[in-house]
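Open question from group meeting: does this chain pack into something compact, or does most of it stay loose? Before anyone orders reagents, we agreed to write out a predicted structure and look at it together. Recording both the input and the output here so the notebook holds the full record.
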Amino acid sequence: MSGPAGGVPAPEMVEVADGVELALHCLGGDGPPLLFVHATGFNGRTYGPLTSRLTEHFTVWAPDLRAHGWSPPPVDRDFLWTTLAADLLGIVDHLGIAHGELDCVGHSIGAATLLLADTLRPGTIGRMYGYEPVVWRLEDQFGPGENPLIALTTKRREEFASRGEAFERFASRPPFGGVRADALASYLANGFEDLPDGSVRLRCRAADEAATYDGEWVSTTARLEGSATPVVIGKGLEMTFEDIGVPAHEALPNSKLITYHGLGHFGPFEAPDVIASDALATVLGHEPAGTHSETNSTK
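Structure tokens returned:
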């Protein structure tokens, strides 16, 4: 695979399981370590406007999940989210972060797998902000092969003549039509790889993204029960995916839910400064703003 856009340093490749490597990006900063984990279809470098704010207080480390960004797909095609969560523990061990001192920010699958990682090794996370973690109530979960996003993703167009062509297509329709221009530019710069003929192709291939969606059926509230992880969960009120994020809040006794008017599941791209401010407040031990907040009554 080609290196990151704009001449930035190539990611470090970290072996997190037998024969499985993840790309690990250092996004800058000179403070304590913070782990940032991306959503399905993205990678550690596609959130430039948001993660650049996080580097004002932290040294930000961002792994690419299996088959995302610069990480190769696993030979055994294991994309179960519990497996991805175990991968993240491999990254934590590689970075040498002490138990209970991991501050982290995640989006969608990134937030869900961070929560799952903490259930695999309770007490790993110190403070966490997660925007709409994909965690299902048991009665709502999809079974293997049932997630409707699987079929939709396999039809996704992967190649464009140029990033300019990709920009025109993505900027003109949902879900990218409502994102901030610089956030879309960050996605296009780092979410695509250059091909020899001058065209570009999505780094996360459609079949791998679909397999990742198929692996989410293990991400359930039952796995989070009893977790003492202190988490702030951000939730957009534009109901792109029903009440996504709420089940995790319900299951986590030490969580707070904050909501945002006008934002959907792509909130970190639609309003990166707003989300970054609340994420920073959370991991710095301050009170995030949000639009409305609700502390879990079982805390």
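Observations to bring back to the group:
The chain is about 30% helix and 20% strand.
The chain has a mean pLDDT of 93.
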